[in-house]
Amino acid sequence: MQKIYLDKNVFDATIERIKYVFDEFDNVVVSFSGGKDSGVLLNLVYVYAKEIGALNKVSMFHMDYECQYSMTTSYVEKCFLEDFPEIKKYWLCLPICAQCAVNITDSYWTPWEITQKNIWAREMPDNGFVINELNVPFEFKLGTLDYDVTLDFCKWFASKNGKTAVMIGIRTDESLNRYRAITGNNKVNIYKNNNYIVGEGDLYNVYPIYDWSVNDIWVANAKFGFDYNKLYDLYYQAGLTVHQMRVASPFNDCAIDSLKIYKIIEPDMWSKLVGRVNGVNFAGIYGGSNAMGWKSITLPKNHTWKSYLEFLLNTLPNETKQSYIDKFKTSIKFWKEKGGVLDDITIRELNECGIPINCETKSNYNTTKIPVRFEEYPDDADVTNFKDVPSYKRMCVCIMKNDHLCKYMGFAPTKKEQALRKNTIDKYRLLNEDKNV
To answer: Which distant-in-sequence residues (6+ apart) come within 8 Å of 222 by Cβ?
Structure first.
């Protein structure tokens, strides 16, 4: 979808969106991570609600992943205990299923599990806003995916309070996937032709700052005097650019490159991370370097990418190996039989590489890109948008990134994977309960 520029700045456009949401919905809930984007969004919503006398309609919630910088915890505590009075607040400390990209054999880890309290990275917050295993007011099972828990919480909130808009501080300039997800015309459940509002029934997700840049975020903080996570100041002093500064669960795929910063900024927390999840130390030392393999991956002598993929697969435990194989087979079948869409430049580059493809004239997707099927699955594809094109090399990259879900190839967790994960965790939870009886 082509960008359309309006004769107004992003701040004015966002205030108009916030006003519209307050007019349309009974409740406005801000998803607050402790990062810069959700922090600015929380401030904008709060200031507007206070000006119109509607603070009673506002709530905030925070999903706590246990392992994080102390400065993030301090900032979140300040927001909950000191700032933003007169609104409802929820601090979720639950044993969710969180992504783990540092462990070669396991794609998830579980924070805040009571049976593992002796190895928690920090003490659980002790205040009236905390929701944990012992007082969770909605249906919850140990090891439920974090995204599903967030959805379950929001559904519970809407069922108790009525028509609810969940404000999410996602910006489309962070990734093409986010841009397509928010601005695309082929979405279902759009609210009254507003692409930035999606949902159904009494629950909708709203993305009011989707068109902001990272510079806009910091201009807003400076211009309006908004408080923010002072971890960003340390990031700046450490030499990171504004695009490299991330406040997220330290074990997900977006955070591997910055794990090494933990050792410098907060050595005490780093020592706890090392003992918390297997593989953290290696990722912290070599994350973002050639040792992780995928940054500057080169083909070993006497190998094709397909044969090298077979070698990498044979180094993995059987269960992990089979999980990758299943996804790779799905990709091969998809690109040969159904096909995906690629832009004109990529198609030209594929033709120049001599890779045989079949281009269609009509697509089932709402896009200006061209549908393409591959006669043979490529070993490698020397194209500018390498990530978008299927190849055995791209499969090797997934393994080297510990990308168990193959997000690099565009996959998302399947229902089967989610169910297997839940069943496994439930099994061992019951074993631990029997052991403690």
So the answer is: none
